[in-house]
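Wax synthase domain-containing protein: structure tokens wanted.
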Amino acid sequence: MSSFFTANIADPPSPRDVVGTYRQIFENRVSEGTLRPMVVPYNLYGFILLGIYLCVRHTNRPTLYKARWIVLAAIIWFQLKTLWHTSSTNVAISFVAGLMSIYGIVTSLTWLLFMRPQFDAKRIEKRKIQENKIITKDNKRTTKAYGDDIQSDARRRIRVSGEENKLSTGSKTSNGKDIGPLHGQSVNEITESQYYWQSYPDGIPERLDWISDLIINFRGPGWSWAIPNIPKPPPSVYNKLGEPADEAAKHDISRTGIKRFNKRSELFRAQVPRFIAGYFLLDVVKTIMMNDAYFWLGPNNYAMPPHVAVMSPIIRSLYRELLSMAGVLISLDVVFLLAPLVGCLLLGPSSFMGLRGEAWYYPTTWGSFSVIANKGLAGLWGGAWHQIFRLIFSSPTNYLITNRYLDAKSSTTKLVASVFAFGISGILHAGGSISQIPETRPWNPPKFFMLQAVGIFLQTGLCAFLSQYIKNTPKPVRQATNVVYALSWGLLTGWLIADDFARGGIWLYEPIPISLLRGLGFAGKDHGWWCWEHVGLGWYTGKHWWESGFTI
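Answer:
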């Protein structure tokens, strides 16, 4: 940090000065050719290559299926290249650039190695069918037929009346063919929707949509591979599929406390107020952070603000960890709410979103606090915490179980699953640390996440050792102990990732465009009402045309 800032030790640089310094350093490195900004579509080429390969059917082409190893190698090479050479003047985007580089590798491993989407995956899809109702006025009978089936039915009934050669206006099948006169009858056409399980499609447009949904989908609602934490589709969907709804589908809340919305009005009442509250809470947290240089420089020797200086070292560390945790929780919650607000409420099922615009497609993000009370640290990370990346975390273990390398019920499998899940999570966050401008410690996030696995197995071992005493302990005491253990372990190890976030300047990002508190002067003279003065799109011209594009 001293190489960037040489101010008096009693006078820390302001957040604006720090942002300006990082911006200048980034621009200098771009000029030198050692860094490049995050460019669209360049930084998406790995995902595009994955999509192109999956869009070519290989279920009946063994050689093409084996070529996935070549595709995977190319994607890994490109993603690692972008990891070490991409950053941004925007501190949030610089973190996302590295995380996305690693995510591209892990999701490619998932779909090319650990899972076989063209063979096994299918999703619930909705298609429109035209229902034709023939109403006989003389005897008030109604006959229904779908598609071309109405033609043979109407012909049969017309021949009975002996008037097939007469013409009648508006009596046509769904394919536009005239079906002749309907004596004393009228035809009503009603467009209805039908649900079905869509496997890998034959048509190119449908295939592109299917693959795009597969790659950008995290939790898999409506897919055969949906993660187990989210609720199943509602019974109404199973009815339209022609399948019986099991007991789990009849409940709006999953076993980990994630809630399903059955109507758009339900989602609106729950998520819009939450988004508004999150906006103002972000303003509060950000304003508090901007009064402590730790949150834009990381651990440093500058003079602390009075309210922080009076704290003991332990209380100060806990205060900063808890504030960092609040920033992470609220930021993620607001970001994850954008999908249902836009996909369901703004666009909706009547738009191009189709089924992806229905309310049940957007269950809540976080599990119930009761999962922590019942399962401790394992419940915190396996149920209460967001499960956005659960598929890529669990796919290696599921692959080993499916291919009988591991026994699903063995303790060894649980150990392997924890190592994969927390190891991948640590590497993802390390990627974000690598791509930031200031000096960070990319090994700290993997340390933090692997220590969570250690904490889980430590608690499991203690519970097994003390099982005779635990089973006789009142349930409220057991639950309180689980909560205390989970939070204590998190705070004991949380400084590793909190310090790295602060070193990288992650809290210099501006989550909201207008700040009421900073506009009123609660964060110092360098802050005002408008927070997005540096946000915008630009154009980057690379050495080759394929390296050029929009910068974020």
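Strands lie at 36-37, 39-40, 86-87, 123-136, 141-146, 185-198, 538-540, 549-551. The chain is about 55% helix and 10% strand.

Cheers.
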